[in-house]
Fold this protein.
Amino acid sequence: MNDKNKIIAGLIIFGVIITFPLWYNMGKASPVPEPELTTTAKAAKQCVRETEYMTAEHMQLLDVWRDSVVRYGKRIYVNSSGKEFDMSLSNTCLDCHSNKAEFCDRCHTYASVDPYCWDCHIDNPKEKE
Amino acid sequence: MLELALKGDKKYWGWIVALLGVIGIGFACYLWQLKFGLGITGMSRDVTWGFYIANFTFLVGVAAGGVMVVLPYYLHNYKAFGKVTILGEFLAIGSVAMCILFVLVDLGQPMRVFNMFLHPSLNSVLFWDTVVLSGYFLLNVVIGWTVLEAERNAAPPPKWVKPLIYLSIPWAISIHTVTAYLYCGLPGKGFWMTAILAPRFLSSAFAAGPALVILLCLFIRKATHFDPGKEQIQSLAKIVAYAICINVFFFLCEVFVVFYSNIPEHMDHIKYLFVGLHGHGAYVPWMWASMILMVVGIILLVNPITRRNEGVLAVACAAVFVGTWIDKGMGMISGGFVPNSLHYVNEYIPSVPEVVIAIAVYSIGALIITVLYKIAVSVKIEVSG
Amino acid sequence: MELSRRKLFKIAGISAIGLNAKPVLSVFADVHGQTRTPDTKKDHDALTAKQWGLVIDTRKLKTSKDVEPLIEACHKIHNVPELKNERHEIKWIWDEPYQHAFPTKENKYLDDRVKNVPFPVLCNHCEDPPCVRVCPTNATFKRDDGIVLMDFHRCIGCRFCMAACPYGSRSFNFRDPRPFIAETNKKFPTRMKGVVEKCNYCAERLAVGQMPACVEASNGALIFGDLEDPNSEVRKVLKKNYTIRRKQGLGTGPSVYYIV
């Protein structure tokens, strides 16, 4: 039991290290970014689903889309009001949300998520080279 | 028992630090590979598996070979091996760990590896190989640790561990059988498509695994106060002698079938390896070296006079180990892919970073085995002293 | 199919489950008018088949020049990169001389024409594809219409499929392919490093009612259609001409036929 001091010192160091990110970033929190809508997107009023759903679940929706298109050869999405969409990230989503930097990246950077969509899917289908 | 691994002399720590250094360099190369892609290796569109998968295949054998120390003790009540079973089990743990790492570094998208369990395909032999390998890893960890702990406490091992030990014996056979099935069920790969592939893999495993155990025993006797025993080493040597004879015999069976039938798709691969094809023959010296090493191993091991001399025995074991490594590792994988499906000869030579990463994986294995053996030997010394 | 529907329902009805499980299980669009369950379907122009197949009339292909437009059409719309390093090469369709396209049918004394004919080779979209059998994640799979397809999202890059394919039809992205695509087709994705790729029988074109790009570019040398439909054009051509397939002795059932 003569290691008491060593143990306590060790515990303190451990505690400091593990909480380091918390107090290091204290007061530095950046404000939650708001995705910016293009005029086309604004004019459309609603995305393929209601905004609330899209904000929270767009990744699940995209997951369903990719399985549907790639694995089952079904490329048309019919939403709850019967409207049809071509399920394509580059050709449908980004056609309307043509401002990827302000619409997608801003939030993704804030949330520190790094989706690998853009490794393959073209992120600027509208721009000319 | 882990604390036993923390008490060592300067040489022990020096070795650990050296291994960590090599692992660090290899890890840096691996980060480079992650960033650039597998293009930093020597692999190609035609030879899609290389040094990594070659070493994976060989090490599955070493892991399975460890069972040759366990089997005689538990199934034939060969008491002498009681002293060394733990060495076989701990060697298996290190080897399987290396196998899993070799598969991981070979993946193009390693972050997605869990897709294998999210979307498993029961048709895929690779899926089953993952299952049997991780199972074998767990079995050996549980068995080795429990039995050693019981030994340390001078108590008989708990009853529940016995069925696991019996299970681990056929399981060892299964890991190498399934690994052979990765190759031998592929249509159009004439070199691999042979029913004798799994038996061949097993025979070379039962030569290479115990050969390494012998070398490790000789080293332990020299470096520590624990003697694995003369009788044990001699018995292991006999196992290596039989296994390497059978391995060469199986290979000769292969040669007969392939050349007597005279079917080009099967012949061309062996021709490429041993005499070269269309002017390409990077593996010719290696393959002949492998054959010579294995034959030298047979001569030294079968002859009782040379086998009983432990210095000569060490040389023989090293020859067997290196011989089977070339044969099963490099030869088996490269040979299967050259010539390719369209009958072009595009050779494969591993690149430097590829070899460095492979050495680092071996170092991780060596580190695991060092720590485990250190614990095992410390317990043995503790109990006897 | 089952899976995607189930997944859709799950997401669509995730909030409804708490209130009442029934609407989740039944499509209630017709009853309530506006609140129908979202669904997916095929484009109404989509071309369908039980087993797509291709007949290549090599009598109409004299030199590599005649195959080039096919390769270019394919590689351009699919963003296939052009890598100078031969080890890292990526190709979906290319041409081979007879002895390499048909290495098991080697013929010592070939006639002059066949000796010089460029044989376009591509994925055979086999009836019983070994690549699908070995894939540990179902990243490569056979669709109901016979197309052997890659799900690049799911591929872990183990390259087992490349070892299993007896035709060398698959390529691996040994590095990021993007810098090597001269002109990107923005309608189609590229690939990323670390995944396997190959010909997809233009699944994305069939889905909107178009024929594969190589077929369109071939001036009638390539005929595409449903092998299981006795009235399809491919079947008519196959009935009239003697054809060969690559390594059919292996039992993979290639769906690409060659008129020699």
In short: The longest strand of chain C covers residues 52-57.
